[in-house]
From TrEMBL:
It comes from Micromonospora olivasterospora. It holds the Pfam family Bac_luciferase. This is FMN-dependent oxidoreductase (Nitrilotriacetate monooxygenase family). GO terms for molecular function: monooxygenase activity; oxidoreductase activity, acting on paired donors, with incorporation or reduction of molecular oxygen. Belongs to the NtaA/SnaA/DszA monooxygenase family.
Length: 443
């Protein structure tokens, strides 16, 4: 079965979506808007929904709606408004402390009845560093080393309560068993954490671990820990190579490759006819302001905006991926896309405007279902990150018109069969590492 995640972003992933007559330009702070989206996604039996995040004000607010709600807070509200759908929040390992974050996600898992997921990111932007006592972005390698240690500490904290530790024994007057708390006592390069956590082990044990970096270091982190991976892939061949690579890395790390689900993003512009879908895409692209987009592209490519002529191809002498300390894989994706298709800067901006490097696709519901099925059946994806260009209408179109086709083809569930987010992804509840160790010592 396919896995489908709804990636929710304001009024849509297309950067000009907010300018359509139907869009509420202030929706990004409106809990009613997100509640509506979550209920639509749940109506479609989607595995999960997901909120991106960075601890910094993204973009100029002149360009598009800016300022977003903190994802775990918003997801707590959505947990109360839904019953089944998984709730995945992004949080940075560079700008948090493990204890605080482990506590927050354990809480969300309790509040949602086992539906929490954590998109583990290292935060690639330059500016965030300056919100956290730093002058510049820590090096890519350091960020990923810290991320690995951060996850290790978090796992120890989530496992610091045995599932059997709370007893609630009123007769004996004994609430819990102190012997079933496992001190964390972590001392590492980045963190010193005594533990245990101040939240009992949650319904899923710990949140579903998601990862979204596709550089070498990103893939290594994913291979060790991730249970779901979000990725941007432009072509079938690239997606297949990424899929194979990551499954092989997971196997080398001693894991069953089936326990890591790979979900490339797709930005589907859906119309009753192909012409209608293309008209929607064209309407959105016409609303892009190229001067803002050129500025953004120049920052990503580390060139001056004047060096990007809107009607010419990218300059020949761009930095190599090694020289990029921010988002390495996205940088390479953008340059490869522009060079392969010989796009002018203006055309490239149009392609990126839809989904920031994710695959855009305009077509009828049948064509979108075909596009999804083709990648799924040819070893490129275990599922998809659905990134509607316009919200809510694009999510409604997907749920009401594409999902039924996938269901008829036997590719997607018609009902939720499990209670937790891991159940939806067909993954087992993790056993507590310390309980496992104790059992091994006793044998
Ligand atoms: C679907 C998707 C969603 C992402 N969401 C976030 C996010 O919310 N916050 C963030 O800092 N990075 C996010 N990223 C970026 C990655 O986590 C990562 O920083 C980026 O791909 C660069 O990593 P790399 O240097 O390993 O390639 C996302 C990436 C993808 C593919």
């Amino acid at each position: 079965m396919l896995h489908l995640n709804a990636f929710l972003m304001g009024v849509g992933h297309h950067e000009a979506a907010w300018r359509l007559p139907e869009s509420d330009p202030f929706a990004q702070t409106d809990v009613a808007h997100f509640t509506r989206l979550a209920r639509i996604a749940e109506r479609g039996k989607l595995d999960s929904l997901f909120l991106a995040d960075s601890p910094v004000l993204w973009n100029s607010i002149g360009r598009r709606p800016g300022g977003t709600l903190e994802p775990t807070v918003l997801l707590t509200a959505l947990a109360g408004a839904t019953r089944h759908i998984g709730l995945i929040a992004t949080a940075s390992t560079t700008y948090n402390e493990p204890f605080n974050l482990a506590r927050r996600f354990a809480s969300l898992d309790h509040v949602s009845g086992g539906r929490a997921g954590w998109n583990i990111v290292t935060t690639a932007g330059e500016q965030a560093a300056r919100n956290f006592n730093l002058d510049e972005l820590p090096a890519h390698r350091d960020r990923y080393e810290r991320a690995a240690e951060f996850v290790e500490v978090s796992l120890k904290l989530w496992d610091s309560w045995d599932d059997a530790a709370p007893l609630g024994d009123k007769d004996a007057g004994r609430w819990g068993d102190d012997d079933l708390l496992y001190p964390t006592e972590h001392v590492g390069r980045y963190f010193r954490v005594a533990g245990p956590l101040n939240v009992p082990r949650s319904p899923q044990g710990y949140p579903l671990l998601v990862q979204a970096g596709s550089s070498e270091d990103g893939k290594e982190l994913a291979a060790r820990y991730a249970e779901a991976v979000f990725t941007a892939q432009q072509t079938l061949a690239e997606a297949q190579a990424f899929y194979r690579d990551l499954k092989e890395r997971a196997a080398r790390a001693g894991r069953d490759p089936d326990t890591i689900k790979i979900l490339p993003g797709i930005v589907p512009a859906i119309g009753a006819t192909e012409a209608e879908a293309r008209a929607l895409e064209d309407e959105l692209d016409r609303l892009i302001k190229p001067e803002y987009a050129r500025q953004q592209l120049a920052t990503t490519l580390r060139v001056a905006p004047e060096d990007l002529d809107l009607d010419k191809e990218l300059p020949a002498d761009l930095p190599a991926e090694d020289e990029i300390e921010g988002a390495k894989s996205r940088y390479t994706l953008i340059v490869t896309l522009a060079r392969r298709e010989r796009l002018t800067v203006r055309q490239l901006i149009g392609r990126l405007g839809g989904g920031r490097g994710h695959r855009t696709f305009a077509g009828t519901p049948e064509q979108v279902a075909d596009a999804i099925e083709e990648w799924y059946r040819s070893g490129a994806a275990d599922g998809f990150n659905i990134m509607p260009p316009v919200l809510p209408s694009g999510l409604e179109a997907f749920v009401d018109h594409v999902v039924p086709i996938l269901q008829r083809r036997g590719l997607f569930r018609t009902e939720y069969t499990g209670a937790t987010l891991r159940d939806h992804y067909g993954l087992p509840r993790p056993t507590n590492q310390f309980t496992r160790q104790l059992a091994a010592t006793a044998r």
